[in-house]
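Minutes, project check-in
Item: structure for the 141-residue chain
Input as provided by the requester:
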Amino acid sequence: MRKILNRRNRKGFTLIELLVVMVIVGLLAALVAPRLFPKLGKGKQAAAKAQIELLGQALDQMRLDIGRYPTTQEGLNMLAVNPGVEGWDGPYLKKALPNDPWGKPYNYQSPGSHGEYDLLSYGRDGSPGGEGEDADVTSWQ
């Protein structure tokens, strides 16, 4: 009889209690997740805009040194490596040339159709246009 009492006095959770807690956690996750995931996309858009701004500042600094922006053929790599241009005083980036937050290289054109240069990311989908996280992030907007 003493063994039966010891089993009843044990502390712990029953299977039913564990299942109820798991259902509650699952319901909370189902309510919170749809509100959280769109904010992740907006964060990547903001990061791409910030990187484009920093690359634009580096391009402006290089223009002050050599008198021009890199051509489309020279590309953004000229910010990190001197191709033999007189007056180049770089590297103009503290770290390696970054990809956009979706892992794709930034698109650069000089001369650009919206200014002296165009610098952009095509967003998550990697193609022109789009909405939300697929929208283009540009240097001229």
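Outcome recorded: The beta strands are 107-109, 118-121, 137-138.
No further action items on this chain.
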